[in-house]
Amino acid sequence: MHSTRFILMNTSHPGNVGATARAMKVMGFDDLVLVRPRFADVLQQEETLAFASGATEVLERARVVDSLAEALDGVQFLVGTAMTPRDFGPPCSAPRPLFEGLAGRALRPSLGLVFGSERFGMSNEDVYRCHALVSIPTHPDYGSLNLAQAVQLLAYEWRQALGGFPVQARTKPPELADAQAVQGLLTHWQQALVDIGFLDPVAPKKLMPRLNQLVNRAGLQSEELHILRGIARAMQKAAAQDKSPC
């Protein structure tokens, strides 16, 4: 079964480790390996936990190793992130076409994504271990991405290539008013328009058929229909008050 591993090289800032865990979790990944982080206890540091924002199970599963070679057990295809031009090395592409190609393989490989240190990126030796490199398309005049931002972008692109997650609706789907309720509204509005003197019942002309077409095009929801009926009641109440003796 294919898997995805995120490998951070020589990470300096605990906050980036925590933010990486968070970025991974929201995209459904949980395999994190740290290679020679600056702080041996980085997975337990307060700043790490704070930036993880609840993704503690990713940190609990994470491993710390001494070399990239130790982080590659089970990895079949290694992708590095490197901006520095090199004389030779693996092919480099944008994340989307590379990931779409990998996801579309009949035998999808287990994937390792390697991220260099915040200050120095990846060493040439580590780059040469990779099957491919990715470069995140940025503005040509400013391509500086925080480590955790890069992780988030690649985690998102890889998840999308794998099929993504459905968007979870935050509200219930709207309920359209049925034709009977719409006709009840129009009858109510017709009487209200007569009450305020806008509609002449003797010569109504085409007002009501045009209003009927208007509400049909609007595709009224049930709650909207109730609002319009409430407006009609208010119109009738105001008309009745105007007609009452002082």
Question: What can you tell me about this protein's structure?
Answer:
Helices cover 43% and strands 12% of the residues. It is of the alpha/beta class and 246 residues long. The chain has a seven-stranded parallel sheet with strand order 3-2-1-6-4-7-5. The model has no long low-confidence stretch (mean pLDDT 91).
| Proportion of beta-strand residues | 5-15%
Low-pLDDT regions: none
Structure summary, number of beta strands? 7
Structural class by sheet pairing and helices: alpha/beta
- Helicity, in percent? 40-55%
Radius of gyration: 31 Å
Q: N-to-C terminal Cα separation, in Å?
A: 85 Å
Enumerate the strands of the largest sheet in spatial order, edge to edge or round the barrel: 3-2-1-6-4-7-5
Order of helices and strands: EHEHHEEEHEHEHHHH
Quaternary assembly:
single chain
Q: How would you sum up the global shape?
A: elongated
Mean pLDDT: 91
Give a short overview.
The chain is an alpha/beta fold. The protein has helices spanning 14-26, 46-52, 56-61, 95-103, 124-128, 147-161, 179-195, 207-218, 222-243, and strands at residues 4-9, 31-35, 63-65, 77-81, 92-93, 111-115, 132-134. The chain starts with a strand and ends with a helix.
Task: Tell me the layout of helices and strands.
Elements: E1 4-9, H1 14-26, E2 31-35, H2 46-52, H3 56-61, E3 63-65, E4 77-81, E5 92-93, H4 95-103, E6 111-115, H5 124-128, E7 132-134, H6 147-161, H7 179-195, H8 207-218, H9 222-243
Parallel strand pairs: 1-2, 1-6, 2-3, 4-6, 4-7, 5-7
Helix pairs in contact: 1-2, 1-6, 4-6, 7-8, 7-9
